[in-house]
Amino acid sequence: MFNRLAVLGKIIGLVVLFGTQAFANHIDKATAKVTCTSYSLTVSASELTPGASYTINYRIVLTPPSGSPTTITGSIPFTGPSSGTFSKTVTKALGPLTSNYTLSGTATLQGQNTTSFHLAAYNARRRP
Asked: Which domains does the chain have, with CATH numbers?
């Protein structure tokens, strides 16, 4: 009986040890906003190792009602802050967009996890 409990304890210990590491260094959220002349992407990550080098790669896909989609890619290199959490907004020029688009995208903490984001359709006739 004691041997079974010891083995069970070791298994639980390994699950806890490796299970908690799966949550380290992860991207929490990504949101994007697109206008007819620019886009903004806000990303946040946590459980980061202070001083370690990281890169968040992102991809935004603009799909028109007909024709080929346009893909925007970029990266945000950074060093893990002492707090272990990171947040940044990147704004870049785009377009001008002259049609309606469906928007989607992903943000990936390189070597870690990916999060998807979906945006409402962009209507060029309703300029913000």
From this structure: 25-122 (2.60.40)
